[in-house]
Design goal:
Elements (H helix, E strand, L loop, with lengths): L12 E3 L8 E7 L3 E2 L4 E3 L7 E4 L7 E7 L5 E10 H5 L12 E3 L3 E9 L5 E11 L4 E10 L2 H5 L3 E5 L4 E2 L5 E8 L7 E8 L6 E3 L5 E2 L6 E4 L4 E8 L7 E11 L14 E7 L4 H10 L4 E7 L4 E8 L5 E6 L2 E7 L22 H8 L4 E5 L2 E6 L3 E6 L2 E6 L4
Parallel strand pairs: 1-5, 2-11, 3-11, 13-21
Antiparallel strand pairs: 4-9, 5-9, 6-8, 6-10, 7-9, 10-11, 12-14, 14-19, 15-16, 15-18, 15-20, 16-17, 20-21, 22-23, 22-29, 23-24, 24-25, 26-27, 27-28, 28-29
């Protein structure tokens, strides 16, 4: 949702030492439209913000002084850079002050700024005095109304993002808009950043797109609330998800100057194990006995973890939540192969199971169900490609 404004390159100062000193008009530095109270900057690798000598910066010369520009423009942060530093954006690598002598392959970089204090179009000039003659740049920029003065700011909040969700959990993420000082209509934007992925925007049909698309359009400046997402996540990638929402002035493209609210963010994780399960695993290791049952129709994952020491106990989890803990007076015999509960979830593929446990010692297929047996007393069941049951024998 953040907007990045980049000024286009408008020219380069090239002074031939063999020429008689002449006044050179070398182009215009054009700033993006800038809200009153904000500042726009043009600097390397924009060629306009540079001085060098020779056809390819291959000569020497001295930049003696500079005059102008007048407010709301200014220049500063002079630095002597190599070509690689300049075009690599390392704009302040070697600070310098005028006068400064440049050798072959050196560039004097500077930064030009535009900070309007009122609306309207502004023009200015700056002139460098050099041993190759004076050279002048024009500067132009437009000051626009600030967001707060044009229609105020609202506030968006995101609620319901779980710290950690697991397969079987119902996730319902909501939002609320507070009018605050809003006076005009707005568009509501919402985006999701999946683990390791690009930002995707939710559109008004419930779909996802990489393009800037509003979730709601032309909302009046009133308090309101709604549902952003309602789902039972199962097959989405495990990892951290970031949700972002913001108000933009109605009908305008997303940019810093069109924001009508701060950007709201919320982060949650989708994982194979809940916080409680992970804590048990970290403390006690993989269970001595394990069973898992997944019911697709009701989005329910039931797990049984059995530990034989220090005291035999059976722990039952429903969708990651601890449902019961029972001391076992007659524990099952040990010897079954321990498995990692994080591996065994409804999105685990047959190929992943085989890669973990090796080739099955037996298979049995009945209608839509396939049962696989593995060494160590492990038995798994797939239904239409979905892992629905796991048992290590001990439970």
């Amino acid at each position: 949702m953040k907007a990045i404004v980049v000024a286009a390159a408008v020219g380069v100062l090239v002074l031939g030492l063999q020429l008689e000193p002449v006044q050179a008009q070398l182009g215009t530095i054009t700033f993006p439209d800038t809200a009153v109270g904000s500042t726009a900057t043009v600097k390397c690798p924009t060629l306009a913000a540079s001085v060098c000598f020779g056809a390819s910066c291959n000569a020497s010369g001295t930049v003696q002084s500079v005059s102008g520009p007048s407010t709301p423009f200014s220049i500063g942060k002079f630095a002597v850079l190599s070509n690689s530093e300049f075009f690599g954006g390392n704009c302040e690598a070697h600070p310098a002050s005028l006068p400064v002598t440049l050798g072959p392959g050196q560039i004097l970089a500077y930064q030009a700024t535009f900070a309007p204090t009122s609306t309207g179009t502004f023009n200015g000039t700056l002139t460098f005095s050099t041993t190759g003659g004076p050279a002048t740049f024009n500067l132009t920029g437009k000051g626009t109304s600030s967001t707060t003065s044009s229609q105020g700011l609202g506030l968006v909040t995101i609620t319901g993002v779980p710290e950690r969700a697991v397969p079987g959990n119902r996730v319902e993420i909501s939002y609320a808009i507070a009018r605050e000082s809003l006076t005009g209509p707005v568009d509501l934007y919402a985006a999701i950043v999946p683990p390791g992925g690009q930002m995707l925007f939710l559109d008004d049909t419930g779909g996802l797109t990489p393009s800037f698309t509003p979730l709601r359009r032309n909302l009046p400046p009133t308090d309101t609330a709604g549902t952003l997402l309602q789902t039972f996540p199962v097959d989405v990638p495990f990892g951290t998800y970031t949700f972002l929402m913001a108000l933009i002035q109605a009908g305008k493209p997303p940019a810093v100057e069109t924001l009508a609210s701060p950007i709201a963010t919320a982060t949650g994780t989708f994982a194979p194990l809940s916080v409680v399960q992970q804590a048990v695993l970290d403390q006690r290791g993989n269970p001595d006995g394990y069973a898992m049952f997944w019911i697709d129709q009701i989005h329910q994952k039931r797990e049984v973890w059995i530990y034989l020491s220090p005291q035999p106990v059976e722990m039952v989890f429903l969708n990651g939540g601890l449902d019961s803990t029972t001391a076992l007076s007659s524990p099952p015999p040990g010897g079954a192969r321990k498995v990692d509960p994080a591996l065994l979830n409804p999105q685990t593929s047959r190929a992943r199971i085989v890669a973990e446990f090796g080739g099955p010692t037996g298979t049995f297929t009945l209608e839509d169900f396939e049962t696989l047996s593995f060494p160590g007393g492990i038995e798994v069941v797939f239904s239409r490609g979905r892992l629905t049951s796991v048992s290590t024998g001990a439970p």
